[in-house]
Write a sequence for this structure.
């Protein structure tokens, strides 16, 4: 995942997400989520990866 970007998930096919009728509200929520801290920090991910090797 060296080329990961914030929107990289958008290039994959979506089969489980509903269609939202209010795109403005959806974008408002997505923009708010961008302001939150990550669920998993990079150091935790590296530590776990090292433990799995």
């Amino acid at each position: 995942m060296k080329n990961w970007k914030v929107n990289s998930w958008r290039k994959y096919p979506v089969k489980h997400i509903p269609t939202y009728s209010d795109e403005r509200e959806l974008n408002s929520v997505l923009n708010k989520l961008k302001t939150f801290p990550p669920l998993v920090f990079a150091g935790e991910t590296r530590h776990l990866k090292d433990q799995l090797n």
User: Anything to note?
Assistant: The radius of gyration is 15 Å. Residues 23-34 form the longest helix (12 residues). DSSP finds two helices and no strands in the chain. The CA atoms of residues 35 and 46 lie 23 Å apart.
